[in-house]
Write a sequence for this structure.
């Protein structure tokens, strides 16, 4: 046993950084090399087809199936020139990954040979035999078909030898079975609603984009050490392990020099990502040892989501070239920071970001305030749902722990923006608006022009913070598909903007001037959504009390939080915006609950196995050595002296006995609790049983294992310890 332990540690030490050759070209030259982007479309498609396709991509024009054959032919030509032999419809099922089934381009040519074939029909639609993806019962009927359909708004790309075509995945009966279909619907909903509101200020606006800039946190662990930790291998996190004496207390890792082996991993990752059109920009060490962050430049939301999924896959692959494994789990190690994925979100038009201030004109500033206040209202109305959108068995370890946003959604605005809203709320229309100037009005909010020029007061504890020209949704989990959070947020904002428009229009119809109608409704909203605004310390216990008084959702149980999806207000929001039906929401919740249960179930099994075949035997072996020693002491020394000299050993012998008994008993009790929970048919009840009865046992058992780790002979301990996992790089 000990041999294995030391062999893996030794090889980890010996590993050298792999040299990553720098390509001869500059990033600007290889950026997008593997992407069928506009430049390639222009080259490989007839000009009429190119025009039609770019109209679909840029303006959301309906896709004319008539061009599919020509697009497919162009794509195939490009892909084959790039060395691709296969193609796949690439989609995001309701797991935390992507799915692909590769088909070769080959077809019989009818003359006994083969030819490369890829028709428009195959590009536009396929029916993968994908009946085993989670679907929440939608496909349990006799008609279990699912279709993948081409999403032209995200460009096709090549990975290794395969042309990947981004697609949505839907049931025969029309329900979405993936993340992308509702995401696209939510983007359309927010576009439509926001364009109408923009028209109050500028009638030229034709399209509003939702932008996403994600920041991905992750850990790297040496591959050899990882292989010797079955818990990491099977659950993505360590289910046991005593804190290392040195952790992150010196705060010496954050923004520190990047270790050589890690730097060469990052370098290769960035080169490959840039070739796939992912605009990588920032990299740095994070707070915890062996924790890092990567962020690209923000992009249109659908593309950014695809790029994040692609990036996670790329990280897993490239880490292995450098003798690392990447951990994307939200909480791989107890006692040090977990990993999140900040989702920087904003809305913008061709001419700029709508959440950006100061504007050039007073109308720009009013538009800015309009979008900020409506976003706040949306987050206020649906704070429980937004929490549900980022909640999972894995992210539950992070939310509410001391380094992460708390399990309560609130919004930080900073001093200046707060002042603007307070000012707006307190003043009367007459004070605010001077009717003068060309357009006949001028807004007088003196704070706005200086706003955000120096908006540096940040609040790291806020789950939804305004940071200059965007909101930063920080509660998203590192492993999650960003789409879940983006669907909820964009839909909530879409619903809110529609409501705003209705209310403003009805005042205008009654004869109120446009600007004063807008101000009146904004003032009403500022008052109403005040409970969501919180600039204090989100980690404090006082905030939990205060948030409860304010009526914000303070639930911490993951399965109960999922109930938010089926609340009347949520169903109404999703249905009225055309994003999801009640049936789809119910199905999705079923999937979420099932996934939750399975994750805890797997963890409980892995912990039980490790406890019984790694921890307890090793502890008893060491205990036997101590017992042996105590007997030998008796032979060697007179009785009184021997018992005195052995007294410390006897204490350890007793401690090992007590702790191993506790572990054995609780592993048995956990098995019994699982048996009881597994008999529950209702998925919600079952998940609650796993949450309430089984998850806490994992912690209790772990406590005693971690104590044993401290007293058992290090040479006998089979599992790499935190001090090795976190510091060898
Ligand atoms: P920090 O860690 O200080 O929050 P980073 O520079 O690491 O900042 O990441 C900020 C992210 O926000 C980047 O992905 C950036 O492109 C993105 N971002 C900047 N402006 C916007 C915006 N208007 N909308 C969406 N994302 C944005
Ligand atoms: Mg950030």
């Amino acid at each position: 046993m000990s041999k294995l332990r030391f062999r893996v540690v030794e090889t980890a030490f010996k590993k050298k950084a792999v040299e990553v050759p720098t390509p001869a070209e500059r990033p600007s030259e290889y950026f997008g090399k593997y992407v069928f982007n506009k430049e390639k479309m222009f080259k490989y498609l007839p000009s009429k087809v190119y025009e039609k396709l770019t109209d679909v991509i840029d303006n959301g024009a309906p896709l004319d199936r008539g061009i599919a054959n020509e697009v497919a032919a162009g794509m195939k030509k490009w892909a084959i020139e790039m060395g691709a032999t296969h193609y796949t419809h690439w989609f995001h099922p309701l797991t935390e990954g992507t799915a692909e089934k590769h088909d070769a381009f080959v077809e019989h040519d009818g003359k006994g040979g083969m030819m490369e074939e890829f028709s428009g029909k195959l590009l536009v639609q396929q029916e993968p035999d994908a009946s085993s993806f989670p679907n929440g019962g939608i496909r349990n009927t006799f008609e279990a078909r699912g279709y993948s359909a081409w999403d032209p708004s995200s460009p096709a790309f090549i990975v290794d030898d395969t042309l990947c075509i981004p697609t949505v995945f839907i049931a025969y009966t029309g329900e979405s079975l993936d993340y992308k279909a509702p995401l696209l619907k939510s983007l359309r909903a927010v576009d439509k609603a926001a364009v109408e509101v923009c028209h109050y200020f500028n009638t030229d606006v034709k399209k509003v984009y939702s932008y996403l800039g994600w920041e991905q946190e992750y850990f790297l662990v040496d591959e050899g050490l990882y292989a010797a930790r079955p818990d990491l291998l099977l659950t993505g996190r360590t289910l046991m392990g005593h804190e290392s004496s040195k952790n992150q207390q010196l705060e010496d890792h954050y923004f520190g020099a990047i270790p050589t082996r890690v730097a060469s991993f990052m370098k290769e990752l960035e080169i490959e990502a840039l070739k796939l059109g992912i605009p990588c920009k920032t990299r740095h060490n994070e707070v915890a040892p062996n924790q890092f962050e990567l962020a690209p430049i923000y992009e249109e939301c659908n593309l950014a989501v695809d790029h994040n999924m692609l990036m996670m896959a790329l990280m897993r692959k490239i880490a292995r070239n450098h003798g690392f494994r990447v951990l994307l789990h939200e909480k791989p190690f107890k006692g040090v920071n977990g990993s999140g994925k900040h989702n920087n979100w904003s809305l913008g038009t061709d001419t700029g970001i709508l959440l950006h201030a100061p504007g050039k004109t007073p109308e720009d500033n009013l538009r800015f305030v309009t979008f900020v206040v409506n976003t706040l209202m949306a987050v206020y109305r649906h704070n429980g749902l937004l929490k549900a959108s980022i909640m999972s068995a894995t992210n539950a370890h992070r939310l509410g722990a001391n380094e992460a946003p708390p399990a309560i959604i609130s919004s930080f605005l900073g001093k200046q923006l707060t002042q603007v809203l307070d000012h707006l709320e307190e003043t009367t229309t007459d004070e605010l608006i001077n009717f003068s100037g060309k357009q006949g009005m001028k807004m007088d909010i003196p704070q706005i022009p200086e706003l955000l020029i120096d908006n540096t007061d940040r609040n790291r504890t806020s789950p939804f913070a305004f940071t200059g020209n965007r909101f930063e949704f920080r509660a998203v989990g590192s492993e999650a598909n960003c789409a879940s959070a983006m669907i909820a947020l964009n839909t909530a904002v879409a619903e809110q903007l529609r409501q705003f428009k209705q209310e403003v229009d009805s005042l205008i119809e009654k004869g109120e001037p446009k600007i004063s109608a807008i101000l009146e409704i904004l003032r009403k909203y500022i008052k109403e959504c005040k409970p969501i605004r919180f600039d204090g310390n989100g980690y404090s216990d006082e905030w939990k009390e205060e948030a409860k008084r304010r009526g914000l959702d303070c639930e911490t149980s993951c399965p109960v939080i999922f109930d938010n999806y089926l609340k009347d207000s949520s169903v109404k929001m999703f249905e009225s915006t055309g994003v999801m039906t009640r049936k789809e929401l119910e199905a999705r919740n079923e999937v979420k609950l099932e996934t939750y249960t399975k994750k805890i179930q797997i963890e409980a099994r892995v912990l039980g196995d490790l406890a019984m075949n790694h921890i307890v035997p090793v502890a008893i072996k060491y205990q036997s050595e101590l017992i042996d020693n105590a007997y030998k002491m008796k032979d060697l020394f007179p009785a009184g002296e021997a018992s005195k000299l052995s007294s410390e050993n006897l204490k350890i012998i007793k401690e090992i006995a007590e702790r191993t008994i506790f572990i054995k008993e609780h592993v048995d009790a956990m098995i019994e609790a699982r048996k009881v929970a597994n008999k529950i048919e209702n998925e919600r009840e079952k998940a609650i049983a796993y949450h309430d009865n089984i998850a806490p046992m994992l912690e209790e058992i772990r406590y005693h294992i971690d104590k044993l780790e401290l007293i058992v002979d290090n040479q006998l301990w089979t599992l790499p310890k935190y001090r090795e996992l976190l510091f060898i790089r």
